[in-house]
Design brief:
The chain is mostly helical. The protein contains four helices and two strands; from the N terminus they run H-E-H-H-E-H.
């Protein structure tokens, strides 16, 4: 967002969809992909999940908190990310029109 000098002038409106860290983290883990291939490759899944959780405990949580705090200071709108998607969209559209 506006925290990046190269992008600052290109951004008109910044929205923070505020999601509790544990929910965002759980959603990331539940997302199936090459990094966490679930049942397609259980050995890779377990290895990567362990590595990820160790990273999150050591560095990741503090990193996410710092980024969230920085964005929070420079955003135009904060929306509760626990609301239904349609309501989040409505709040953003309403803010853009006013």
């Amino acid at each position: 967002g506006r925290g990046r000098a190269a992008l600052r002038e290109l951004i008109d409106f910044v929205v923070l969809v505020d999601i509790p860290l544990e929910i965002a983290h759980a959603r990331k883990i539940l997302r199936k992909g090459e990094f966490l291939p679930w049942e397609d490759n259980p050995d890779v899944f377990i290895k990567n999940l362990r590595n990820h959780l160790n990273w999150y405990i050591r560095i990741g949580r503090d990193f996410y908190i710092a980024v969230n705090n920085k964005v929070r200071k420079n955003c135009d709108l904060i929306v509760d990310g626990m609301l239904p998607t349609e309501q989040i969209a409505e709040e953003i559209i309403h803010a853009l029109h006013h």
